Amino acid sequence: MSADWPVNIGAAAARSGVSAKMVRHYESLGLLARVHRTDSGYRQYSETDLHILRFIKRSRDLGFSMAEIAELVSLWNNRRRTSAGVKRIAQQHADELSARIAEMQAMQRSLQHLIHCCHGDDRPDCPILDDLAGQA
Fold it and tell me: Least CB-packed of 13, 20, 79, 103 within 10 Å?
C-alpha cells in the first residue's frame, strides 16, 4: 500500500462523502467488510474500502434500499456475475420510483384541487379541512 493508506475513519468519511456514523452503520450491516483495526482498536480503511463506501453513497443517492445495495455490492464484488441481475435490480427500482412519482403527482393534483376550492378568506368554511376530516 502507498503511504496514504490505510486511513482512519475521519479520513475515510471525508474522502468518501459518507459520515463516520454511516461508515460504522454500513460496516454493522455487512455492506462494508469488517475493517482492520490497530492494536488500540482504531479502524483502518483501505483504498478498496473507500471505493465500496463511494459505491454505497452513489447507490443511496439514487434511492436504492439497503437490501438492494447489499445485493448490488455483492454483485459488484462477484466477477462471475451477469449484468442481467444488475439490470433487474435497477429496472425494479426505476419501476418503483415511477409508481411513487405517479402517487405523488396524484396527491399534488388532489391538493391543488382542494386549494382551488378553498376561498382562503375570513369565513370558517374550508374544503381542505372538510376533505381531511372526511366530510367532503
Answer: 79
- 9 contacts 20 by C-beta, under 8 angstroms: yes
Asked whether 44 and 38 are in contact (CB, 8 A), the reply is yes
Q: Within 10 Å of residue 40's Cβ, how many Cβ atoms?
A: 5
pLDDT in tens, 42-88: 999 999 999 999 999 999 999 999 999 999 999 999 999 999 999 99
* Distance (Å, whole) CA 12 – CA 113: 49
Exposure letters 42-61 (e unless 16+ CB within 10 A, then b): ebbbbeebbebbebbbebee
Give me the helices (H) in 1-136, please. 9-16, 20-29, 47-61, 66-77, 83-117, 127-132
Give the residue carrying C-alpha cell 492494536.
Answer: 39
Among candidate residues 60, 65, 53, 47, the one with its CA nearest the CA of residue 24: 53
- Residue 5 region, left (φ>0) first, then alpha (ψ -120 to 50), else beta? beta
